[in-house]
Design goal:
Keywords: Membrane, Transmembrane, Transmembrane helix. The chain is an all-alpha fold. Helix content is 83%, strand content 0%. It is rod-shaped.
C-alpha cells in the first residue's frame, strides 16, 4: 500500500518541478528579449 501511494506523489512532484523549470526558462527568454541581457536569447526570439 505505501509503495502504491508514493509513486503517484513522486510522479506529480516531478511533473510540478518540470513545469516550474519550463516557466523559469520562458521567463528568462522573455527577459533576454526585452532587455540587454544576451545569453542565446536572440536566437530563441528570432
Amino acid at each position: 500500500m505505501p509503495v502504491d501511494l508514493v509513486e503517484p506523489v513522486s510522479y506529480s512532484n516531478v511533473v510540478l518541478v518540470l513545469c516550474i523549470l519550463w516557466l523559469i526558462i520562458m521567463v528568462y527568454h522573455v527577459l533576454g528579449c526585452s532587455s540587454r541581457i544576451e545569453f542565446r536569447a536572440n536566437s530563441c526570439c528570432q
